[in-house]
Design goal:
- This protein is mainly alpha-helical.
- Helices cover 88% and strands 0% of the residues.
- It has eight helices and no strands.
- The chain has helices at residues 2-30, 36-46, 49-76, 80-104, 109-119, 125-143, 147-179, 184-241.
- The radius of gyration is 27 Å and the shape is rod-shaped.
- The two termini are 46 Å apart.
């Protein structure tokens, strides 16, 4: 529930920012100059508030989830080499309890995995290794949480744009049928709507795809560090047991 609230909060701030930008653009229009944002606003209105609005909602929700994931992943990043060295020193000087205290005072999934492994250290290396592997899977699931929604919006945005394209072309042919004329002036409006919705859907998909790829690469990096650090922990426990 907390994650949902965070995502909705971010989306709300982005929506308020868009409203403030709209007021600023109207003020600039009153002065007789048209800014880049005003051009985008005009094209958005010309493309039709129906499908363009739905695609905009997909962009806002996708960006909100992406920003939340980026913040979470940055907070989950840990200096694993420093943590392994600290745990090694704690095991040598104070035993398992001292190492667990180091993990409790360190944020991130790697420290949590270390703590679970140290909790089972008294039961043997096999039990510690199983705890590390099992809890590692849990942490991996937390890292990948909600990422599938971003991929959904990436697929949904161009599809909505193409749907708007089809509807725009239907409108163009309807105009031809009503006017019984195929002059450019008759079909220009429908074709323009069709092209604008397609472009907007593709732009949204491109923006979200960039964030998605960054998040995936960040997750892969953290997971690799988790696996390397887990192997190092088992080696440290084996050395400590001797």
């Amino acid at each position: 529930m907390k994650k949902v609230v965070n995502i909705l909060t971010i989306a709300g701030f982005m929506f308020l920012g868009a409203i403030q930008s709209t007021y600023a653009q109207d003020a600039a229009a009153a002065e007789g100059s048209e800014t880049f944002h005003q051009i985008l606003k005009r094209y958005f209105i010309e493309g039709g508030p129906g499908f363009m609005g739905i695609v905009l909602v997909a962009l806002i929700l996708g960006l909100a989830i992406a920003i939340e994931r980026i913040i979470y992943l940055n907070m989950a990043t840990t200096n694993t080499k420093k943590l392994v060295a600290s745990v090694d020193e704690a095991l040598s000087s104070g035993g398992v309890e001292a190492a667990k205290e180091v993990c409790r005072n360190t944020k991130g999934p790697v420290a949590s995995i270390f703590y679970q492994g140290l909790e089972r250290a008294d039961e043997g290396l096999d039990a510690a290794e199983k705890a590390v592997v099992g809890y590692g899977g849990v942490q991996m699931g937390l890292l990948e949480k909600n990422i599938s929604w971003i991929s959904l919006f990436i697929a949904l945005a161009p599809m909505l744009g193409f749907m708007g394209t089809v509807i725009g072309m239907i409108s163009a042919f309807d105009a031809i049928a009503v006017a019984n004329d195929i002059s450019p002036a008759v079909v220009a409006g429908g074709i323009k709507v069709a092209l604008l919705t397609t472009v907007f859907g593709l732009v949204v998909a491109i923006i979200l795809q960039i964030f998605y790829n960054y998040i995936i690469s960040k997750v892969d990096s953290i997971v690799n560090n988790m696996e390397d650090a887990s192997i190092s922990l088992i080696d440290l426990l084996a050395k400590y047991k001797k």
